[in-house]
Automatic annotation (TrEMBL), chains A, B:
SMART domains: HTH_MARR
Organism: Jeotgalibacillus terrae
Keyword Chaperone listed: no
InterPro entries: HTH_MarR-typ, Tscrpt_reg_MarR-type_CS, WH-like_DNA-bd_sf, WH_DNA-bd_sf
Keyword hit for Transcription regulation: yes
Protein name per the record: MarR family winged helix-turn-helix transcriptional regulator
Length: 155, 155
DNA sequence: GCTGAAAGGTTGCGTATGCAACTAAAATTG
DNA sequence: CAATTTTAGTTGCATACGCAACCTTTCAGC
């Protein structure tokens, strides 16, 4: 085996090039790479809170707030106040967003196919599964670091 | 198979949590996540140009310039003018950097082990190999997009 | 050897992100 | 039910990054 610490390098390269690709691809729609993931969530389940998205994507709620605001400004989503919890908003797709749903999904699929070009079906499946497990491990580790920290300050 | 476009989600989660972990881990040394990759390059080969690093990591030369400046400010590297090419600098590690080389490598290995927790040796190996191929595919695709663009403007 | 193109670096600007601090509205608890 | 804690969201600040424009220096072609 090579140096174990080399994994992060490829990960970081894939991430940065995904950023470049998605930014260029959706620029003509006024959508940045950072907003796509929220649209993808909404395509699955429309009308959720920002908190829900933050939890679903394991992303900071401040980042959610800004991404949703940008999408709202561009006319892709609207915020409706939650009827029984006045702290929360529910986020809904507009027709403008629904109109480009298929384009977005097509490009996302295209990018995944690009990344896994030359992979066998099995390798493609394995790649996704291993990445999912890595994501789970990453989240668990960082959360355990935070627990340690909050226990310390509580003493 | 699930939706193909789901791969990017895990990728992005792993990347963001790597960012969080590495930022926290190296904060006490005055080193950010963004500088680590350059130190790793220098641990392999000391005394290279910024251009070399940009090529090696497929990273923008402006980002290299800023990361190296930060490392220089913190006393981890020095820039020496290239003796035969007055445009270029050669970047060398200081003793301060060499003194924490083992710590950095240890933490990087630890993080990789965390990400691949519960993986068999074969899965760990596969994960690294598939990521490497994905990175290669990503770079190739974006470069081909740029070629198309420059051909268009040249006409 | 000039001239124009290419290469190495830097800086300005914009985006995506995390963290900390904040507000306002629930929810919990004594 | 009043006081405290938690939750949903926003804003300020800092970091990492890409792209474009720029400056020097080097190189290639004539």
């Amino acid at each position: 085996m090579q140096q174990a610490h080399i994994a992060g390098r490829w990960l970081s390269t894939v991430h940065r090039y995904s950023y470049i690709f998605l930014s260029k691809t959706f620029a003509e729609y006024g959508i940045g790479q950072g907003q796509i993931k929220f649209l993808m969530i909404l395509f699955e389940q429309d009308g959720v809170t920002q908190e829900h998205m933050a939890g679903e994507l394991n992303i900071d709620k401040a980042t959610v707030a800004r991404a949703i605001r940008k999408l709202e400004t561009e006319g892709y989503v609207i915020r409706k106040p939650h009827e029984s919890d006045r702290r929360a908003n529910l986020i809904f797709l507009t027709d403008k967003a629904k109109g480009i749903e298929s384009v977005i999904k097509k490009e996302m699929t295209h990018w995944t196919e690009t990344l896994t070009h030359g992979f066998s079906d099995e390798e493609r499946q394995t790649a996704i599964e291993l990445l999912k497990r890595m994501a789970g491990n990453a989240v668990k580790e960082v959360e355990s670091m935070e627990e340690v920290k909050s226990n310390e300050t509580a003493e």
